[in-house]
Amino acid sequence: MSCPSPSPARNGNRRGHTLRLAALALAGGLAAAALGQGRPYYNITSIEAKRLTNGVILTIKADGSMADIHAHDWTVLSDGEPRPVKEIELHCGSAKSQVGDFVDISKYPISHVELIPRVYSNDGIGLDMRIKLYTEARIRHFRTERFTGDWWWRPTMGCCFDGELGRDQQSLVITVVSDRFSDPEPVAEAPATQELSLEPGPDGTFSLYALNLDLRRLTHELGRQAGVRIVVDESVTRYITVSLPEMTPPELLRSIAAGYGLALEDQGGQYVLSKGLPANVATYETNVTQVVTLQHLAPEAALDLLPNFLLAYVRPSEAQNALIVAGPEQLVRRVREDVAKIDSPPQQLRIELAAVKIASTDAWNAAFRGEASGGNTAGGLDSDAGSLSVQYLDQPPEGVRAHLRRLERSGAVDTLAKAHVTLVNGKWASLFLGEKQYIQVWRNTEYGDDQIAIPVDLGVEVGVIAWTGGEGIALWLNPVVTTLGGLDPTTDLPIVDRYETQGAIIVPDGHTLLLGGVRLKADSHLLRGAGAAPLPRSRSAMSEDAEIALFITAYELGEFDTSDGPTFSGRIARELREAGVELEYRTSETPPDADEAVPSMPAREAQP
Predict the structure, then answer these.
(1) What span, in angstroms and rounded, lies between the C-alpha atoms of 22 and 13?
(2) Separation of alpha carbons 246 and 505, rounded Å
(3) CA distance 312 to 325
(4) Which of 291, 371, 376, 547 is 20 to 30 A (C-alpha) from 100?
């Protein structure tokens, strides 16, 4: 039995159905392609920087609307002010770059700009723009389509920056206000008057005098008369003013290159002059790169000490603790010599702290009457005045120790503890005399009540920053007294009282400061004199209180050199070694040992 063949009508319907499916598939593919390739974007077309006397203006231009640009987390506030940042990060969700991924600025305080494509972008659209700074800066004003903020903090306290999106939304202007002042960039214009005098001298030398002369004209005339080939790179535009008597052509070219920051290369009798800062392959070939290893300074600190115009030639390398210098050979050599001069060992200081309990105030004042000056209780101590006082003892430490020994033998004072710390010139450290106690409290959580212990440092902590290098030692002191008071009637928890003061004073090397106004109660808690302020009720039954005094002595240890093994220099270092006191370098994690002659309490050193 044979099956009937399909009718023409049925064949036509099948062909029509197939064509409709193909058309639908094609339309769907085109729509998908349109969705994938039709996402709108704009290009970053230029990034230009203009130096001002007190900052840099950075102008970012695009060929479309930059309305999608928004800021990173540098707007997060800390204590009511924007936090300082060394990187201004912006997100451009619909941008592509036509200027590459790195734009060198090298105008303090802006180092460079990085344009990094977003890794999660499948179509290559989207940039993270990072404006790197040489120093920290705070935001002051910023306005884009998505973000507006004003923080008019004190602009004299360092660098700050503003940002403003243009009315056409195709330009973003960022102004970074600097903490340094410099001359604005000169405008390159051809001078009206030009002079040239090139006179041959003995032994193939020439005497050159040029006034506002184009470098290409000068090298052309020198090459013609001396019979040498001199090539000037197309990127070099200079007007030369020099007076150089009786030099050979190579000596003349080296002098001009050194004076105008150019790179000179001798290519087998042909001399090539190019920019000192590499801008292309040709100029890169004529430059040299060297690694300047640092022994004592950090790379950022060394870079900050160099002149602003060198920032384009020098990059810090934290991993190598070095500076990478790229430029003309004479410039690289000079930078290496200058860095060697400033990379010297830091000055070290030794701060000693001794705490003594005063059993007899009359005997104490009799021993030190007339020796103390400064502070607000000169001539004696009085903790009932309700203040912490700092006084300067106008006598060498030997005299202070002799007074204390006599008072100890008479029973007027009792030495409680001693501690010391060694710190770098200009760095912060702290000395602590006291103990750590824990307060148990209950807190409510979603799982029920939970008991925790809160640590409290009870005692006296003296924060100190010391500077030397002039006459005497400048000390910035921040004594803090932490005590336990009475019980809070609501929570039945102890009240933690904290008193502090701060001030600066200059003392001669090896002399002593006297910190007074602190009391020691019978329960060994350190208490500050409260004066007219009412005491907590739980203190009213306490008695047998005694006043304590803190002696702070500062010494210059001299330079601390770690290049050939840790060694101290300086007068006091030699005297301490002769007296049997061992000096050693300690990291910030290792506290210095207390004096073994008396009961010791820990001394803590902060991270520099």
Answers:
(1) 14
(2) 59
(3) 9
(4) 291
